[in-house]
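pinging the channel bc i need a second pair of eyes. not urgent but kinda urgent?? the chain im working w is below, pasted from the shared doc
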Amino acid sequence: MRVIILGADGYLGWPLALRLAKRGHEVIGVDNLYTRNAVREVGSDSAFPLPDPEERIAAARKLLDVNITFYRADVKDFDKLHEIIQRHKPDAIVHFAEQRSAPYSMIDVNHANYTFINNITSTINLIYSIIKVDPTIHILKMGTMGEYGTPNYDILEAPFVEVEINGKRDKIPFPKWASSWYHWSKVYDSYNLLWANKVWNLTITDIMQGPVYGTRSEEIIDEKLRTRFDFDEVWGTVVNRYCVEAVLGLPLTPYGKGGQTRGFISLEDSMQALTLLLEHPPNQGEYRVVNQIHEVYSVAQIASMVKEVGESLGLKIDIQHVNNPRVEKEEHYYNVETKILPSLGFRPKKRMKEEIRNIIQDLIPYKSRLENFKHVILPKTDWRKGRS
């Protein structure tokens, strides 16, 4: 299979490129390196030093005996994107080339606008490129469970749901109620793809993935192959952020009451799931929604887990709840349907507690590097203010 990965320099994009290449697929990566610059913009950096893409690819060739083609290009440039797709004529295109941080989108008007322009433009460009080159190309688009919000009903794996209003029944897209400009941009992406499927019969997998955590996938066997690892208040997800706080001797900082509950998945299990979805595409012309989570926890439960694991490794750890900068329910119902991935053979390999141990052990040698970024861990981006 020939696969183009848009956003191949990212936290998920790089290990997916390694996984697919190691499995014998032809991999073409595309990235404009925006995330590297945007993380530096907020005063942070990856926990692990990242080589340039060309150095990473050379290391992958030497250490894993795989070849990855890479283009430094912006997916907002339609002509360039179309040229790459036309040149390689892939079987599938993975769309990770989006601004992926909710806090970043909430900093101010410029960051909100960038999020919408980048995310929606890149998706529309992809749609039209595929229409021109080959409408049978499978689009695998990374959505987010955050598109749904926290409804008081089960979150189904369904593009549509039947409703009745004043005695009249009809189908509507499954309801979504996002919680940041970033999450709303992803909702619009999903609806745009759903409509493109209706108009042009495109083949689409829309993955609703929960927060990903971890430092390792099977192919990351050397420091030169590490993927990025973000931990600051803008770019870091909660598990990864807590683990850095633990290593630095800082209190773990659940937002508000800590009852916010989400479905999580490890980096390794995410790679397994994404590979299965690519190697088992939907039927031609089908729009497939997949909820991609493994374990469900509240952020307070995760803090307790990190404290327990960290203390078993000799760290002194406290938990200190801080004011919640976000506009979200802090206690709520949360139940997610996950049928498609198990039907394809998905068998999670990792439990959060064991992965927390791995994360902390991987981070300890970088403690002096992390000390430089203590000031960017506590929340400063307040949803309610409209500015940082």
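so The chain is about 40% helix and 15% strand. and The chain has one domain: 2-374. — does that match what u expected or am i reading it wrong
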